[in-house]
Structures are given as structure tokens and as C-alpha cells.
Write a structure and sequence with these properties.
alpha/beta; Spore Coat Polysaccharide Biosynthesis Protein SpsA, Chain A; 5-stranded mixed barrel; two-stranded antiparallel sheet; 12 helices; about 20% strand; globular; binds uridine 5'-triphosphate
Length: about 325
């Protein structure tokens, strides 16, 4: 049963063991989370987001291509020594940043048996405390405070928390979908009464999609251990959360925080390109030059005539 909780959220789990098939062939030899968004791999934005919420202990759930992820969050002594010799402080700062974000740990999922199974792989590391889950391919704009708002909601009401976003009805089949009811005195924090993974538009209980941020009560591990494979033969986190949503056991109950900011699924090619462009125009060094070029190019014959000579892939 959900009760207010003053336990802090100090650990984050970042599942990054999916196959990334939507981004093939780019994701064949490197995890899609390592694809650059302007000048940082997507996953670095996610670890930075956790750090902004006060979390400096991160466990990544990785698959067979984990080497690049491990190397990225480790020190690179030869590169640092070369930059020190050149007195290039700016590049030195950039190369060190990812290793200075906190303690990043890794565990292998072994087989990609689903997001629920990936989260279960974190059980020994997390222990008996609430924890955050951030999907490694989901970017939340750094000007938004979604994770902080979710942690605050958990402290007020207890239980677990999912992030929800309104999506057009014809896209709801791509997401987990939540049925919700209001909570007295709250705006944009709701109680989740039911959840369904990737429903057909006609069967969807709402237009509220579950996006890739969670704050979970540790009782979720017991639920995941007994959750049978669901949609696609995978152990679905949504199925375990559905059990939690209707549970009156300690740690049960699920809240939704409705997010109205910018979010990008960098595992999807179109969303990935939107993320690159949006973040590039705001970039401190190249932003204004890129924006100037983009505006000029958008008005050019090359851009506007593209339909006639659509490039093949
Ligand atoms: P996705 O639904 O994006 O699946 O997973 P995917 O396999 O990575 O990508 P596609 O659909 O084949 O292109 C959502 C998140 O859950 C992680 C993924 O790495 C991603 O961050 N995940 C998924 C795991 O860690 N393990 C799994 O078994 C499944």
C-alpha cells in the first residue's frame, strides 16, 4: 500500500541491452546508445540527467557490445596525457566529463529477454531502496525536471512512479498505455489504475503513453521474479507495474507524472534526427552557425526540390 516515503533515491539503472534493430546497420557493432547526438553519445545525456537529480550511482545493463559503453565512462589516460602535453584544457575537460559524472557500474543481461528482465538484473546492486530507471535511448530535454518531479511525487505518495506523455491516438500502439484517475490537490500527478503494453488504438484506455523514466519501489523485484513472459515473449516491466498498480501490499501503488516537455526516442531514426537538430541549434559553440546554415538550407532549391530526387538508402 502506498504511503509517503522520505527515503532518498540514490541509484539509477540504465537498461541498454536491447538489440536496437530499428537503427540497423548503425547499431550492428556498437550499442545505439553510443550514437552521437551532436558531440556526445546519447547515453551521456541520460547519465547527466541522473546526476542533475542527485544520483551518482549508475548501473548500466548491457548486452554483448558493451565495450564502447565501458570505455566511454572510464578514464582515457593516453588521450588525457596527449592533451595535457598540448595544454588543451578545453578538450581535456570534454574527455574527462563522462568519467567524472559518478560511479558507473555494469552488469550483463546475457539474453535480451525484455525490459522487465533487464531491470531484474539490477536486484543485487540496488538492494532494498527505491531507485530510478532511465532508458538509455530516451532523451529528456535538459531544461526539464522530469526525474526530480517523479522523485518528489514518490516522496509525497510512496509506491512507484511512471512518466506519462500525451501522444496522438494513432501512435499509442507504439507505447505502454496507462488508465489514470486524478489525485486531490495534485496537477500533473495522477494515480495509475491500469496499464497495457502497446495496445491497438481502439483498445487504448487513454492517450497517455509510458515513456522511459521510472522511479520504482524495490518491491518491484519480487513482482518481476514471478512475472511471466508477455507481449513478444519478453518479460515486460509494464506487466509488473500493472500488478503493482492494483496491489495493496507495502510498496504497491503506481503514480504517473504527466510530462509536457521535449522527449526524443533516439532509437528511432526520425526522432534521433530531430534530437540532433534541436540540440545542435542550441549548442554553445556551433549553434549559431548551424542555425544560420539550417535556415538558409531550408529555403534553398536543394531542400525544396528534394521530393523530385529523393535519395535512396
Ligand atoms: P526497445 O523497445 O527500444 O528495444 O527497448 P530495442 O531492442 O533496444 O530496440 P529495437 O526496437 O530493436 O530497435 C527499450 C529499452 O530497454 C532496453 C533497451 O536497450 C532500451 O533502452 N532493453 C530492452 C534491455 O536492456 N533489454 C531488453 O531485453 C530489452
Amino acid at each position: 500500500m502506498s504511503v509517503a516515503s522520505n527515503e532518498p533515491v540514490l541509484k539509477a539503472v540504465i537498461p541498454a541491452a536491447g538489440l536496437g534493430t530499428r537503427f540497423l546497420p548503425a547499431s550492428k557493432a556498437i550499442p545505439k546508445e553510443m550514437l552521437p547526438v551532436v558531440d556526445k553519445p546519447a547515453i551521456q545525456y541520460v547519465v547527466e540527467e541522473a546526476a542533475r537529480a542527485g544520483i551518482d550511482d549508475v548501473l548500466m545493463i548491457t548486452g554483448r557490445n558493451k565495450a564502447a559503453l565501458e570505455d566511454h565512462f572510464d578514464r582515457h589516460w593516453e588521450l588525457e596525457a596527449a592533451l595535457e602535453r598540448k595544454l588543451d584544457d578545453e578538450k581535456l575537460r570534454r574527455v574527462r566529463k563522462s568519467a567524472d559524472l559518478g560511479n558507473v557500474h555494469f552488469v550483463r543481461q546475457g539474453e535480451p529477454l525484455g525490459l522487465g528482465h533487464a531491470v531484474l538484473c539490477a536486484k543485487a546492486h540496488v538492494g532494498n531502496a527505491p531507485f530510478a530507471v532511465l532508458l538509455g535511448d530516451d532523451l529528456i530535454d535538459e531544461t526539464d525536471s522530469l526525474l526530480q518531479d517523479m522523485i518528489a511525487a514518490r516522496m509525497r505518495h510512496g509506491g512507484s512512479v511512471v512518466a506519462l506523455m500525451e501522444v496522438p491516438q494513432d501512435q499509442i500502439h507504439l507505447y505502454g498505455c496507462a488508465a489514470v484517475e486524478p489525485i486531490d490537490g495534485e496537477t500533473d500527478v495522477v494515480r495509475v489504475t491500469s496499464m497495457v503494453e502497446k495496445p491497438a488504438a481502439a483498445d487504448a484506455p487513454s492517450n497517455l503513453a509510458v515513456i522511459g523514466r521510472y522511479v520504482l519501489d524495490p518491491s518491484i523485484f519480487d513482482v518481476l521474479e514471478t512475472t511471466a513472459p508477455g507481449r513478444g515473449g519478453e518479460i515486460q516491466l509494464t506487466d509488473a507495474l500493472l500488478t503493482q498498480a492494483t496491489s495493496d501490499q507495502p510498496g504497491g501503488g503506481v503514480l504517473g507524472v504527466i510530462f509536457r516537455g521535449n522527449r526524443y526516442d533516439t532509437g528511432d531514426r526520425l526522432d534521433y534526427m530531430k534530437a540532433v537538430v534541436r540540440l545542435a541549434v542550441r549548442h554553445g559553440e556551433i549553434g549559431s552557425d548551424f542555425r544560420e546554415w539550417l535556415l538558409e538550407w531550408a529555403g534553398s532549391d536543394e531542400c525544396n526540390g528534394l521530393e523530385q530526387h529523393q535519395l535512396t538508402h
